Amino acid sequence: MTSEQSKPEKNTVRVSSWIELYEALFDDTFNTRTSRYKSRYAYRGISSADYDMKTSLMRLGGEYAKVEPHLLRNFKKYAYEQITARDSEWYWLSVAQHYGLPTRLLDWTYSPQVALHFATCNLDKFTADGAVWKVNYKKAHDYLPEKIQAATNDSATWILTTELLDASVKSLADLDALGRDGDFLIFFEPPSINARLFNQFAYFSMASRPDLLLDDWLGARSELWTKIVFPSQLKWEIRDKLDQSNISERILFPGLDGIASWLKRYYTPTGTARDPVAHAPDVVEPAKNEPSAKEPAANESTQ
């Protein structure tokens, strides 16, 4: 690579096979202290390598940063009876994100295979190259303000929880205030409010301000991340091997909707099965001057 290449390009690994993909996903996951392969990476799969990491709040458009507190306040108002940990802003935010409210959170997983699932489950994007973002959350937390770092140090962990966040910062407004001294990114585990979060081995990232695009923040910190890009031609191999490994909607989205989504995708026709009529064996038509098998010749007996 030349010095003229951008940092994002230097951090992009392009693979062409299943083996290369797996090697890239698990690269740099060996923990020398424990002599175990205990990864410190967060994984996020995207169906098109061209997608940026805009949050659902950003995709809302308009003055989304100003709308953010109103969204969460009204969600609290209408969902109050269904939430138990009502005093935690981060619990509320986790539940809201999980059920589709636009937030500044992004979904991540500890599992490279789960990330690959989300990069290959959308059949409408099978003509586009896919990608998996791989971010070292341990190193990312080196950029946290001391007030939040203290929570991770005191508990000897590199991943925060809603409870640990509550001990250091109470609200989005407090988080925004801390971010005025410099942008940062928090990775934290939500409560396992249902089997989906549990099975997806999921957690969230949260930016220090609502309009902070993660691509930009990571672009200035090349030591934190790798983007693994794989060609569209590899998607069906990845998809089929994940299904055989029991990584599918049936497991990641327990319930009837997950089963239906899995079956719809699994039985989507491909190859010659897509148009069986067009690929049926050719039928040899009898010549016009020869008798058809169904019509005896004039000089043949019909008995």
Overview of the molecule:
The protein has 303 residues and is α/β, with parallel strands linked by helices. It has one domain (7-274). It has helices spanning 7-10, 18-26, 56-60, 64-79, 89-98, 112-120, 137-140, 146-154, 162-168, 172-179, 195-199, 214-219, 235-244, 249-252, 256-266; strands at residues 12-14, 41-46, 105-109, 130-136, 160-161, 185-189, 202-207, 225-230. Helix 6 (112-120) packs across helix 13 and helix 8 crosses helix 9 (162-168). The protein is globular. Mean pLDDT is 88; it is low at 1-6 and 292-303.
**Cα-to-Cα separation, first versus last residue:** 84 Å
Widest sheet: strand ordering: 1-8-4-2
Number of helices: 15
Derived structural class: alpha/beta
Count of domain modules = 1
Q: Indicate the mean pLDDT.
A: 88
Shape: globular
Helix content: 25-40%
Oligomer classification:
single chain
